[in-house]
Design goal:
This protein is of the alpha/beta class. It has a single domain, classed as 3-Layer(aba) Sandwich (Rossmann fold), CATH 3.40.50. It has six helices and five strands. The chain is globular and about 30 Å long. The C terminus is likely disordered.
């Protein structure tokens, strides 16, 4: 099996189950995935990412994207969150919220809504 050569996604967090799931979804969607526990200037500035995904509201809060400059970065911020935490995620700088449980169609809908992929090309089968 060849590795995807499409746009890169930076995934921030330590949730192993979610990391595994997003790795599978990213590969299926043709994306490369970089995973870090916390975003550092080296992790973010050294690469061009189509999107920065946070595994939870807590990981978004720890990263403080407004203070660290991630919000000013060209990459949109996505957070996997629970119902009811979307408002707080937006206050912290999230451009898109995906509510648990995350499915492949949810993953692709986020990438489409952010303009990273063309919605006509999305296959959820």
């Amino acid at each position: 099996m060849s590795l995807p050569s499409g746009p890169a996604i930076l995934l921030v967090g330590e949730d192993e189950a979610l990391i595994y799931l997003i790795e599978r979804y990213a590969a299926r969607g043709g994306f490369r995935l970089h995973v870090v526990a916390t975003p550092t200037s080296e992790a973010v500035s050294g690469h061009r990412h189509a999107a920065v995904w946070f595994s939870s509201l807590e990981s978004l809060e720890i990263a403080r994207p407004r203070e660290t400059g991630l919000v000013g970065h060209d990459s949109p911020l996505v957070v996997c969150t629970s119902m009811g935490d979307e408002r707080r995620a937006r206050e912290l700088g999230a451009d898109y919220c995906v509510v648990h449980p995350l499915t492949y169609p949810d993953f692709m809908a986020a990438m489409t809504a952010l303009g990273i992929i063309d919605g006509r090309a999305v296959s959820t089968g």
